[in-house]
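Reviewer 2 asked us to include a model.

Predict the structure of this chain.
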Amino acid sequence: MKPALRADIPGDVLIVEDDPIIALDFEDTILRLGATTVRTAPNVARALEMIAERLPDFALLDVGLVRGEKSFALAERLNVLKVRYAFVTGYGGDIRLPPSLAEKPRLSKPCSGEALEAALRNRC
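Predicted model (C-alpha cells):
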C-alpha cells in the first residue's frame, strides 16, 4: 500500500550511504513517511552525478563513507544549491564537522523513524 502524500515531507530524497542494508532501511522509512522518490548513492562521486541529473528536495548524508571518504564536499555543494540535508553518523557526538557545517542537522545511527521524520520536516 502506497502512503498518502504529505506536503511537509520532501518528495524526492537522496540518500548517500555506503552500507546497502542501512540505505534500504532509510529508504523504506522515508517512503513510509510519504516521500514519492528515494534515490541512493554509495559515494560522493555518484551523489554529485545524481544531483546534476536532478536536484533532490532533501538529502541524507552519511558522514563517513568507504575508504575514509567524507560527505563534506557534497554538503558544501548542497548548500550552494540550497538543498536541505542532514548528516547521519554512527560516530555519535564525537564526529567533528567542518566549522561551516557544524550547525547542520545531525542524526545518530541507528536512527529512529521519529528522528528521521523530524529531519525531513526540518524540525531538528
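The two ends are 29 Å apart (CA to CA). The helical segments are 20-33, 44-53, 72-81, 113-120. We have added this to the supplementary material.
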